[in-house]
Structures are given as structure tokens and as C-alpha cells.
Amino acid sequence: MITWRGVDTNRLEQVRVNVHGSRIKAYGRIIAAATDEHDAFSASYELVTNDAGVTKRLSIHLVQVGGETQIGISRDEENKWLIHSGGDTVRGDFDGAQDVDLALSPMFNALPIRRLGLTSTTGVVDVPVVYVYLPTGVVEAATLQYSSTSDGIAVVSPVAQSTLSVDDNGFVIDYPGLATRV
User: What is the residue-level pLDDT of the chain in tens, covering all 182 positions?
Assistant: First the structure.
């Protein structure tokens, strides 16, 4: 079990992570109080990767004051992403993404960090992802940029730029500006 507390906000994320080699199964929940930027929400998720650490499936149950939304993100047999949300289905390659990223979640940074060995990689690595914005539930292609520094792993995402500290397993300890592990 890993728990993160939001920085300068009333938000928690808790996840139960099962790791087997590069494979990850994760069951988590983000609970956020209302802020100036968004209403209160909760997002429960279930994540499964394959043996290489590539995302196979992400299911999200998003609860807001205005209702509930189910989002399903999975790969088909041709390695295309299938995004199911609100009765609509979108199929695409999302710029070759192998990872998903859930906004406001330090958990999802572990996917490319672990899969690509970013704690020991030098240089800048562009990582295309299927990006899920919270609390809107909008799903888009995005590119995150990672680089290993003497202070940790620098990351630039669609919503933040920071230098992460991670544990020996590649899971975030501190994401300045976003959350810290408790």
C-alpha cells in the first residue's frame, strides 16, 4: 500500500500495488476536496500492465457532484488503444503510447520510470502517453518528458514540471508541487 498526500490541497491517493518483475497490478483511489480549480471528486482505478510493463488496461470510476463517469482504456489485438467513455468509443494509436498517465497521480509516473529504467538513464526521454485529465475525464494523447538528474528524475507533463524523488522500485516518494508519500 502506498499513500500520497497532495501538496497545498486536500487530496489523497492510496494504491495497493502488486509487482511481479516488470508487471504491475494496481488498485487505487484519488479523493480530492473542492479547490479554486475544480469541484470535489473521487477517482477509483484499476491498472494492469503486461510482463514488459506496458499498459494493458486502465479502468476509472470518476465520481463528481454532477454524476459518475466510467472510463475504460485498453489495447486491442492490433495494439491500438480503445477508449470507452460516456457511451463513446475511440480507437487510435495515441502517438505510439505504451503508458497511461492519470493527472494528479504520482502512481502513474512509475510506469515509464520502471519500464524504461529512467533512474539510470541519461539524457532526455520523450514518453508518449494516453493522458487522462482529472476531474474532467478528458482523454488525449500527450507526451511527457523525463530526464535523470543528480536531484532525481525531472518530468515535464501537460499540467506540471518538477523533479521527482523515487524509491529503489521506481515509485514516487516526492513530487514537489503535486504530492508527497506519507
Answer: 999 999 877 999 999 999 999 999 999 999 999 988 889 999 999 999 999 999 999 999 999 998 999 999 999 889 899 999 988 899 999 999 999 999 999 999 999 999 998 877 668 999 999 999 999 999 999 999 999 888 899 999 988 899 999 999 999 999 999 999 99
Residue 128 and residue 118: Cα distance in Å, rounded?
A: 15
Peptide linkage before 128 cis (omega within 30 of 0):
no
> Does the CA dihedral 76-82-45-130 come out positive or negative?
positive
* The model scores a pTM over 0.90: yes
Buried b (16+ CB within 10 A) or exposed e, 151-164: ebbbbebeeeebbb
